[in-house]
Amino acid sequence: MTNLQAGTIRTLEVKNEAPFGWFLTDGEESVLLHHSEMMDDFDLDEPVEVFLFQDHQGRLAATMKKPLITQDTYAWVEVVGVEEKLGVFVSIGITKDMLVSEDDLPFMFSVRPIVGDLLYCTLKLDRRDRLFAKPATEEVMQEQFTTASRKDFNKDITGIVYRATKAGTFIITAEGYRGFIHDSQRKVEPRLGQKVNGRIIDVKEDGSVNVSLLGRRQEVQKDDAENIYDYLVERGGSMPYSDKSFPEEIESRFGLSKGAFKRALGKLMKERRVYQENGWTHIVKE
């Protein structure tokens, strides 16, 4: 193993000038600090603190820019590029973005991060000494969690997905709570790194929380009611569905259970926006 490793911050001595910058050394090995990677002038007689990384040719290089993460630290970093056969690239605050290998991403492409999502990462070298960004393990995430209390029940929260599994979705909330979203509490499975909004539906003894991404009952009814009303408008004001329709018909057309359909329809009738007649539902003409 060499003394100078990519992904680390080192304090090195100035060795000599090169056409494109300065060579720095630890006394045994040297690395180039390119002019483009210099933040300001430095005293040639003083040590220089730099971050070591691999340039686009895979060569070890130095930068005076401070990275968001190193081999010894973790932070939230933003996804800035997606390569389907490789993984995703994240910005770590230097000129070169780091790859998160597809091996460290969910198998399903639908839940892989997209540009703008956030991942809690560190830097690691693989067996070939290539530098990668690597998402935090569950054990590392445990160090970030805080404990929720019963008074947090039913509280609206925001969080970031840090783990996506067949059992459900795990998030860390803005407060630091470990949240779990069962597949019955979401309409669409969130992506790894996606920011989500939900509410706490249970607080566990260990201080973690169960979260729902579904709206509260009155909010869901409102959304369903408006979707049904929009469908009526598209059909010219009438549709061959009512609270007497078969559940299979309702599920096929609206993606709703019959109970949810009846609640939404009841809301529209209570507001005198629709009425039912002979198995049909019509918009009330003003």
UniProtKB/TrEMBL annotation:
<dbReference type="Pfam" id="PF17783">
    <property type="entry name" value="WHD_CvfB"/>
</dbReference>
<dbReference type="InterPro" id="IPR003029">
    <property type="entry name" value="S1_domain"/>
</dbReference>
<dbReference type="InterPro" id="IPR040764">
    <property type="entry name" value="CvfB_WH"/>
</dbReference>
<dbReference type="InterPro" id="IPR036388">
    <property type="entry name" value="WH-like_DNA-bd_sf"/>
</dbReference>
<dbReference type="Pfam" id="PF21543">
    <property type="entry name" value="CvfB_2nd"/>
</dbReference>
<dbReference type="InterPro" id="IPR014464">
    <property type="entry name" value="CvfB_fam"/>
</dbReference>
<dbReference type="InterPro" id="IPR048587">
    <property type="entry name" value="CvfB_S1_3rd"/>
</dbReference>
<dbReference type="InterPro" id="IPR039566">
    <property type="entry name" value="CvfB_S1_st"/>
</dbReference>
<dbReference type="Pfam" id="PF21191">
    <property type="entry name" value="CvfB_1st"/>
</dbReference>
<protein>
    <submittedName>
        <fullName>S1-like domain-containing RNA-binding protein</fullName>
    </submittedName>
</protein>
<dbReference type="InterPro" id="IPR048588">
    <property type="entry name" value="CvfB_S1_2nd"/>
</dbReference>
<comment type="similarity">
    <text>Belongs to the CvfB family.</text>
</comment>
<dbReference type="Pfam" id="PF13509">
    <property type="entry name" value="S1_2"/>
</dbReference>
<feature type="domain" description="S1 motif">
    <location>
        <begin position="154"/>
        <end position="214"/>
    </location>
</feature>
<dbReference type="InterPro" id="IPR012340">
    <property type="entry name" value="NA-bd_OB-fold"/>
</dbReference>
